[in-house]
Predict the 3D structure of the following.
Amino acid sequence: MNSDYMIATRKFKLIVRKRWQQQLLDQIFTDATHVYNYIVDNLDNKIGRPSSSKLKHITTRVYDYTNKSWNSANVEIHGPAVIARNAVKQVYNNLSTLQGSKAAGNKIGRLKFKRRLTAVLLTYQDYSIKRDKNGNWLPRIRIPGCRSRTFYFRGLKQIHQLEHEVEYWTNHYRQTVDQSYTPLPIKFKGAFLLRKADGYYIAISFAIDKAIWLHRIRNMRIGDVVGLDMGVKKSITFSNGIQLKYTPSQKLVDKIASINQRIAKSQRGSRNRLKRKWQLRRAYQKLANVTDDFRTRVFAIVNRYSTVCLQDEDIKGWMKKNRNGMSLGEKLQYVGLGMIKQRIVDQHPDCRLVDRFNPTSKTCSQCGNIKDDLQLSDRVYVCDKCGFKIDRDLNATINMVKVATGVQPVHELSEIDAVRRTLKHCNVEMSIIDRGSRFSPVTERVPVQSSGQEAVFRLRSS
Ligand SMILES: [Zn+2]
């Protein structure tokens, strides 16, 4: 991969209406699974990368759902040859990821057989999006085995948006940095065919000129540093005073509960039960899509700050926390939120964790006084010493920033607009809390005197 490019991925939904389309996709996923398991089965035999002509008749492992065991079976691969070839590649890709993980010091197992692949690799030569006579994109895609036919897909707008963004930032780059810069054109790279409960998707990677994309990221910055706190009641509080409340749609939660009841009442192995289970998968998929959207947006907000500060609670424990006595809605909310935190810790270039025993909630963010008798039910923090009054969670986030970076967070009112734009059309409640005497934008950064609390730094370079 040329290092002058950066990768952006977009997902498109395939519209499957005709019988040949359903049959082709079935064939692709079945073939890919068989070949994948065949290679995994023969890794010890130094099988290498057999050509697709040698993959026509193979003895592979097939999962038997009734006996719950893996059996050997002779299968024939009828579908497009590239699919078999890519499935081989996919095994070796997974193998090198596994070895990379081992090199990083993680404990790893062997590659496992797959009952059914949910993602099938395509290289950039294997698919193409059609254009009309004038060179405009059409929402029609050709995948292996299509011959002269095509699939319609949803989400063409995303390609236009990407092109538009690159054009905009290229102009910006020319005006501010280098007048004569000519960026490399956007390139289609590899893709994955995805099989989900609500249908088939294709996730396409685009290569975009690195200088332009980095320029965009730099210019999208809305601030230097932000603190972040999470809880079930208020979901997410930022140190700029924005609070987001994420609750999975009650309608969907009720639906999941009612389908579960019906499954419990239905007879094992009956058609009815199978149908309900399908319904349940679709409902969960829908919920996952909504949650994923929210997570992506929160991550987009955090990414627009150079530094993010979090309190290092036991993140895994957060997700595993005893969930008995919680309603189904609360459980689903927990799962959605826990993953946001993990993603920020894993992917933000400068994420700083404050030690979990640091009393960020009990400390006054104005004068540093520690209030030991603060109750969990006190939603507003009132300082005994200086009389400062502030929302409890907001107070904690400001302290996180102070502990992790040594400065008082400075936020501008314009940040609120930027965040609002990022959350446009997103089904989430956003509120702005009064930051008391600190609400007016402060232009100077005030270094905080050391209060004896030590910050735990975790710096990452991207
Ligand atoms: Zn105080």
Q: What stands out?
A: The CA atoms of residues 292 and 336 lie 8 Å apart. Residues 5-213 form one domain. The chain is about 40% helix and 25% strand.
